[in-house]
Structures
1.
Amino acid sequence: MREQSMVPEPEFESYYGRQIIKTPTWKTPDVPLYLFLGGMAGSSAVMAECAALTGNESLERMTRLVAAGGAAVGTGFLVHDLGRPERFLNMLRVLKVTSPLSVGSFILAPFSSLAAASAASQLTGRLPVLGRLAGLGAAVFGPPLVTYTAALLANTAVPAWHEAHRELPFVFAGSGATAASGMAMVLIPAAANPPARRFAIAGAALELTAAELLRRRLGMLAEPYEQGRSGRLMKLASRMTAASAVVSWVGRRSRVVSALCGATYVAASAITRFGVFEAGLASARDPKYVVIPQRERLAARAAAGPAPDVDHAPEEQPTASS
Amino acid sequence: MTATPEAPRAGGIHPNSFHGPLPDVAADAGYVDHPPRKGFFTDTSVCIGCKACEVACKEWNEVPADGYQLSGMSYDNTQALGAATWRHVAFVEKPLNPTTTDLGLPGMGPPGFEGYESGVQTAKPRPEDQATESGDGSIRWLMSSDVCKHCTHAACLDVCPTGSLFRTEFGTVVVQQDICNGCGYCVPACPYGVIDLSEDDHKAHKCTLCYDRLKEDQTPACAQACPTESIQFGDLDELRERADARVAELHEKGVDVARLYGHDPGDGVGGDGAFFLLLDEPEVYGLPPDPVVTTRDIASIWKHVGAAAATLAGLAAVSFLGGKRS
Amino acid sequence: MAEAHPVGFQWVMEAKRRGARVIHVDPRFTRTSAVADLHVPIRAGTDIAFLGGLVNHVLSNDLDFREYVVAYTNAAAIIDGDYRDTEDLDGLFSGYDPETGRYDPDTWQYQHPDDEDGDGHRGDDGGDGEDQGSYGGPGSSEHSSQESHDSAHSESHGSGGAPVPHKPKRDETLQDPNCVFQILKRHFARYTPEMVKEVCGIEPEQFAEVADAMTSNSGRERTSALCYAVGWTHHSVGAQMIRTASILQTLLGNMGRPGGGILALRGHASIQGSTDIPTLFNILPGYLRMPNAEMHLDLDSYLQPDEGKAGFWGDMRKYMVSLLKAYWGDAATPENEFCFDYLPRITGDHSTYNTVLGQIEGRSKGYFLVGENPAVGSANGKMQRLGMANLDWLVVRDLQMIESATFWKDGPEIETGELVTEDIGTEVFFLPAATHVEKAGSFTQTQRLLQWRDKAVDPPEDCRSELQFYFELGNRIREKLRDSTDERDRPLLDLTWDYPVDTEGDPDGQAVLREINGTGPDGEALSAYTQLEADGSTSCGCWIYCGVYADDVNQARRRKPHWEQDWVAQEWGWAWPANRRQLYNRASAAPDGSPWSERKRYITWDADQGKWVGPDVPDFIVDRAPDHVPEEGAEGPDAIGGQDAFIMQTDGKAWLFSPNGVADGPLPSHYEPPESPVHNPLYGQQNNPSRRTLDHPVNPINPSYSEVFPFVFTTYRLTEHHTAGGMSRTLPYLTELQPEPFCEVSPRLARMRGLTHGEWVTIATARSAIEARVLVTDRLRSLRLGTQVVEQVGLPYHWGRNGITQGDSPNDLVNVTMDPNVFIQDKVGTCDIRPGRRPRGPALTAYVEDYRRRAGVDTETGSPGTPPRREGLTT
């Protein structure tokens, strides 16, 4: 049956232990990789613009390529994840603010095009002004690309995702930053990457702080982020990120160390997304994550005072059932 | 009656368009003249578990059979709603003095069992349970036909990025199979766990409240087939009145466990188009105790997304201060 | 009822909504129990004890509806002084012949009214045909009674009672020690609540609840109804179970009254119709008996026992002649006794199980299986298949390739090697059949209601309706015999065999229905069986159906919704006889013709109009006053007095005590099922002494109270599947609802045998062993009988080896022991149950043989040896 937990759980009833909500049908590794790639690409575009403004040409070039490449590959995974990939353009039939996937399509599409244009311009040397404008456009769409995916996950009934909707965008933002910077640290000579290193450390701090806040606030729903396979992935990723932050500062003079830290950042960012994804699936599969928090919510409402009587049912009480 | 989704909305967007009581859901979706909202009232106190609803639904909608597996979950081998099951009858056996801890693990020796062995008289059933007295104990065998709730605020519809899921003029929620691209977003969005992707065609499928039959002024197949009128179909307002009366009737008979579920426009999904009379807590039937449409929090979600995006940009800017190279 | 008749069950739910109390008595807690007010778990096969307990409760506490009982029943009748009850003979009635296992009802007869000295001897009963006052004909002689029961003559009482030679001497005060009422009291005194607990496992508190509920809800103001199906019929004491119920309902005054009565739930595939227009060996349409080769040499001797008897049964000549005219039309004339000689005769027991034995022994060569799957649906599946393997030819007509059509290549005996495909000489013909939506016709089901179905679609490809098959078969045989001069072929050649057919050759069902309804001298459709004549001017295929085509309108096709009619709803379908919805409704009025109460007003006497009136067709001569006294020597319907409510009985009364017509006793007595873990607590006589056994190595019986087979098993049904599964296990939508064969056991039994919920188990009897998954559930109760706890294994019987879901057939476990009245098998037996799957191939036979050996089953004869009679009585 269910795993033994350390603390005796409140009793609850369920239908033969079956899950109540459906497990997301999104495929792994497609979707976690898309989250990772989108985060890396979007942050990369921002870095590219900052690099351009500060005259850091090698950094600018690299980050533009990473932004375009990441977006392209990520889009590929996204389309592949669809049940009917040939119908992917149907995403652009409507724009609905209630659907992060709809909004996201209208972020990803412009971003991909603009990033590709600016990267092409960069590579061929043609149309530099337009290329630069495209790059600016990509940088505007970049941060939304990084963080909207948190909305994608949070705007569902999946308990571990939905309840985390405040912190998750910040986790993704930080993780995107570390991924983009990490990539830069791997691919760029050490002299050109202090901004990358600094950005990575800032991102790491942001990500780890947000994740810690998430775990504290979520109560029981933090379990999937701490236990089981998803918990192990999260812990691994956060340790890798933290270690990279420290080591990258200490060993900032060494190209090799920087590169290693960069690679670790990139891997950790990917693992974070897998961890978050798995945590959601785990919270969907066990009915306790739906029933217990909802019962607590009902109890809290009941304690707060009787609602206007719109029905004849007796007051809902959380039950320790037989 | 004309049903024109493209017609201009009357009077702008309703403040409760995303969450909260919404009296005219079809108007909110853009219909100008539309029939009264249709729905189901499923009175599980008269369900006899015959599953005619499951079969009638599959026959009419040509839904494929989806699995020949003995579940061991009492007489429920259908197990859950899904892409190929749009009506699902749940069975829960609740003996008063169970001689098992649960159906999966017999022989755990609980009180009733020992009492029986030693000939000690076990407790009498309480009338308010609507348990059936049986031998020296009693058993409640709950049966309930579950279905898509056709929520007033339907998360599946809200998150659908292609516009495939739409609100019909009857206030129901339907998937347009020629548009759905199987993105699967609706699947985890549903707080009831109704909609799912088909393994065969990888698109989303769920109960249509027999939209084709409604257009011909007919009753949905399940309601038509139900022999005891457990599944009642009609105008939602009228069904809600009928349900109130039925609960009052049961309470008067001493069946205190009877309660309505999904009837309240003030609940987390704005009330269901298909609501129920249950004889136990919702989670006993596999239903969420307090479902909330995820869209309730969409504003907060976007706010945090925006703030995080801004933070990202800000951190980037700060990181690049201090010159080109150092 | 909710399991097997969910659509009909909506009316029970409707009644419940209006305040009715629903009590469900069943070995298992079913979907009916879930919505009932009270569920009474009962040991399978012990209903006589339970109902007998209720009868005793009524009699001991004077809770009977006395006025009703005195006026309308034979409670006051005085029985022969030589009658001995089971109380006197430790479980036997007087007249038992241990050699033959049959009863002579000589000592069960009414005392003659002229019998002054009360010695019980009446006048002449030697069969010399001398008139006895108003009732002609002889009493039943020893010879004829045995013969008649051998040929299941009892079944011919499906629409009217057995004849008695004379009305009885009566004691209206009900005090005479030999009167029925006192006999009843003595007989049922043993059925105390404690005895009910000991036999049935029903707690005294619960029994009291049921007793109080029934008695407080019966009488002038209220009525209670009993509904039953194969839980009462599939027993070696089945007929007597229903008898006990009818005694109870008669004592409570529930018969013939609205909301009362006993409703046989005959729902599937026109099963009521299958006895009305029978497919049975022992009866003709309308429950006329099949002529016997030795007893009925001519029409007069055939009619003699019933002719002239009081009541409408006395008009039997009219019904029989009209039937013969329907069969042979112009060839049937008064000179040739209307071709009475053309009718085939029976010589004894040609029932299905005996016929199967005949197949095994090579006496029966051919077989038509039409919509029947005995390999799965009949008791002792192996016996069925061995029989079919020994035929010359077998014709199977069905919708699907059923197990009875494929036994020769994939039956269980092929797997074990007991049969080898190459050695089976049976030539099997499979003819695809049309479904019930692909042909027009009527179903006759519960409440004797005929409902006509129109054809909705054409049958696909080669599928044909039964009408078309038989009509065509008859055509071809008649064609072959066209030039024959053999007298033996005249019956076939002289048949009226001319139905209009459509372009596909399908006969018009309505034409057949019209023929069944009957026509008058000018060929006009008749309206009532009272129009039938004995002179050959009328023709009628089934006298009780006369009126279904009245006014040349298919009355069975009427579909006026109930919300457009009164509560009797006479314009939905057509009920036999005469569209009468409540039988014996004369009893719904007091002897003086006034209603028993306003609340239960139904049929009443309107003195002004001089007739009986009410919302239903009166089951009485419509203008016969309540105070009418028949003249001396009156015959047939003329002999019905104003208070003879039960007009199909020769004495016009409901029989609490049955002098005639029931093979195993004038009163019911509890006996244990043929296989039982329990000693009969009532008497030393363990089993029904006149049960029909089939002693043959293929039908070994488990010894009773054996350690080797310690558990009770019974078969039953699920809503999701239909009978032997041919119509449900082959369809995906139904199969997925109950996709695998399973059995149900109590948690205690699971613990005893180490059974795990959802896993495989093997169940064994002396006949065979099967495997199934097990559901461990509290819905099967462990029953405490005194100090003994009885466990029951419940088996939905729908499975066979063909179809989408496949499994062993539970009927392979069931033995053939039959009720002596109607030769129906007992579905209760004993078994063992063990975890794990069963052995395969020849290992299975070895496994079963091992069980037999350990249990001491005599494999030569199949007999378990007689269980020892217990000396003395213990209560």
2.
Amino acid sequence: MYALVDAISFYASAEKVFDPSIRNKPVVVLTNNDGCICAVCPIARKLGVPKFKPYFQIKNFLAQHHVVIRSSNYELYADLSEKMMNVVARFCDEQYVYSIDESFLHFKHYQTIIKDWHQYGHKIRRAVWKETRLPVGVGFGTTPTLAKAANHAAKKLSGYNGVAVLNDETSIHAALSRMAVTDVWGIGTRLGCKLKVLGINTAWDLAQQSPQAMRKQFSVLVERTVNELNGVTCLSWDEVKQPKKEIFSTRSFGQRITSIHALSAALTSHSVIVGRKLRQQNSLVKRLHIFASSSPHDDNYYKKSLIYEFPVATDNNCQLAKAISIVLKSIYQPNVNFYRCGVGAIELVDGNYQQPDLFMPNKNNPHLMNCFDKINHRYGQGTMQLAGEGSSQQWQMKRYFLSPSFTSKWQDIPKIVC
Amino acid sequence: MKIIPIYIAAGISGFESPAAEYKELGLSIDQLLISHPDATFIGIAQGQSMEGIGIFDKDLLIVDRSVNAEHGDVIVANYNGCFTCKFIDKKHAQLLSASDQYKPVMISADDVFQVEGVVISSIRLHRPVKDLIACMH
């Protein structure tokens, strides 16, 4: 048996954990630079607040309904995420943290002990709520794809109340027939359109297809999805946990920048973030995508992007920063008001199986990077920086509605009235 | 049996300090006071109502959410949208202070009330701590 546990509108719920004054109020969270709405709590959803709308377009509506607005407080979310994951991990044999608020669980030995999965799901929900004050949805399925579908049902379909179990024909049919085909894990909007042309509208329709025909018409991935929806496990646990194939760090600037030094500092900082994420999943980068642009709403829209190929794949911050300084002159142009820039690792190599090159010295420095990561993990990101990241933080995020870092800064710990 | 390896080396060298193998150890306040790290948070006390039990203004409170609140425990509650530290009187549905200056608070059906956790310890800082000065106001 598999399960997927995730938080209900995680960012908005996380804002409520240490601020009891907003627990019963509508809350929304904005993306980087307070651009768009990225999380809507259930109370705000009932008011009809849409997700992914630009903040400025909906500002008046939010004010009218007294909706509480927060900027993304990543320090808080990261800390609460870790706590939530640890609580959930107690309930299974194996856990794989899939994203900041989702984790897959695998039950092997527990399978014989647990008699009632429904009850068990509610037990998980109660424990996470009691210990972290975060609401979660729990979906059980006999395959990872069914677990993901069950999670969708638990949270989005009426009558499930936060827990769904898809382990027999009746329960699978009941849930899948009420889900759009695009709600199935791995079926994107484009593929969904093609399937709809064939009359495959619901997840149940997809489950009824012949796997071989789906393979012929689309891909082995769709075949696998059909099998998984019918309870045939195709994704091995290792495939669920596959590392990311691309890593990007990109952001729009709080204030436009025009100087080459500021652009260099911003790109270098992005490369350092990419470096950290590479090392977390033990990958090395072979090709790095580096780009910068003005706003598409500007006159004379300017956009430039380049790909830098490393002679030897690397995860060394210094090598990444060096790549930035090499391409910078080709990207920068005077008199452009840069609005956004970023760095993406687009070709990755598994750190365990790197092919060494006789004539190319390997410039990785795992000891240094390990030390770098440990210092920043312990004392906070940015404690140790490359000089190239600069000290002026002009390009950093605009976060006007930021809540305190209740759990990661002493001056921000919650106040308790006696 | 612990073996202290001494490598063969030319020249004069001393014994490796036998203390070296203990270097990683040390006393951790966290380990001593926090039994459920994932369910625990730290807050700062504001007010005088719990002085009778030794919780003073600006003390640190360690609050464990995983512990079940029993009758008479010192708890932190969400009381009408505010974190509040009191004794809980489960029999009379009241919040009690540890001071004669404060009357018991009845919890009525109209109140927002949730137990947030049990105060398992409080810490008094006898000298100002730099990192906390900002939240002392």
